[in-house]
Amino acid sequence: MVFGHRFPAGQPPRAFRGHFWRCRSGRRRAVTVTGHHRTPAAPARQPLGVRSSSTMARRPHLPGGTPAAPRPVPEARPARRTARAGAVGLVAAALAATAFAAPARADAPTTAGTAPRHQEIQRAMDAVVAAGIPGVTGQARDRHTVWKGASGIGNRVTGAPRGTDDHFRIASITKTFVATVVLQLEAEGKLSLDDTVDTHLPGVVRGNGHDGRKITVRQLLNHTSGVYDYLEDPAYRAKFMLGEGFLKHRYDYRSPQVAVDVAMSHAPVFAPGAHYRYSNTNYVLAALILEKVTGNRYEDEVHRRIAAPLKLRSTTAPGDSVRMPRPSSRAYSTLTEDGSGRLHDVTLQNASQSWAEGDMISTADDLNRFFRALLRGKLLPPAQLAAMKTLSPQSDDGASGYGLGLTKETTSCGTEVWGHTGGWIGSLSASFSTADGSRQLTFNTNGDWSFAGFTALIDAGFCDPPKPGDPQPGSGEPGGRQPGAPAATTATTTPESWARTPAAAPAESLAATPAETPTAAPAPAAAPAEKRNAA
User: Fold this and answer.
1) What Pfam families does the entry give (predicted)?
2) How far apart are CA 91 and CA 109, in angstroms?
């Protein structure tokens, strides 16, 4: 489930392609890079902050310079598939209160652990767990301190606590990385935001009323293109994101071509520029344009332009890998639309199923440093950063809105924060910063069926803690909502808010049964190569 901005119902995440090394036998094997030596590993992701060798397998190029899809590696045994942006059980709110009446805190904070603000963040994280999510990890950063904390468990089988340095799937937060590279290309004069999609991908956006000659790059980035979101396709969701479909196809390779084909099989949701509607297909197309303009894979451009300069060594491009880098916790989902049903361990899934729309893996520390650098003007010239923060009129409701791969939200105390949210099967994340880059907060949950407590957690990160004599929650006085308060404070006043209304949730303990432990991922199997261009 690749969520973005305000998490409209039925929206999923995106993926990244990893770096592979060829063995002498010619078979591609992923490697992990540690220190100065490479150690072969089961489908492992390569950190974007680490350069790959000249022996790295390269994707062939189609006529016109567009890179073709890499030859699929995993096919599927106990197949598993990536999530989409928003469905799978994320819509439910509170799980039965039987789970974690007293949330267990993981590792101790790094610095300033007793500061009032950090205490509020910790209480808010505990409230998220008390509402039924297995565990939460997060980091808060300002000019003087870096604090990290966690609550709940990271593994239902072993009972291990959630770690403060966990890697996790960032889902649609990937879109901010993609948009940053596109804006850098505009600053270099290599493309214009007012270019049409057909300028770079002639004939790709066609079918059932879609017309790439009428859609601009800007409209892709701010979700005003009207292009259908492939993750809303019922058949696609049933196959790749829900229940038995996910369990069967979780290890399958999926090319960007499939996403474009699914989108083009539907009519556009509105004429280009007429409205705002979040669509993951927009960023599949934006990344294809990025690749066409540069002649390089978008992962390589993200590495060269963002990850390497900022030393984001925990930010990875999964490629066809199904695994998570360490340290990380297990991820859980009910694999249902409404959050009901038993929990499944969904940690292992083929990252290719969400590509540039939301497949990156990172940590709270890396994301905080990324948004700090972005909003302080370290990655974009002033004109491009201003364009990124220009909200589309169709999405701007005064308190929140969507720019170019960047969303604005307003906390209960009136602080404006900029960043992005991301939802994936088994994972929900949010990463925000003040406009001047002076303060950041990133957090992730390892369950996808509840947003309860998210708003309070963001408030805790950016609002001053209550002082003695301040209005208390429920007092009916202005400012009576206290940062860190439990789920009742997460109610939304906007219908598209990503803090969803509570729905039915599994009335079971979060203690796992041995049968739930996932089997190992299948060995990669040959699969037919697929063209990147849409018909």
Assistant:
1) Beta-lactamase
2) 31
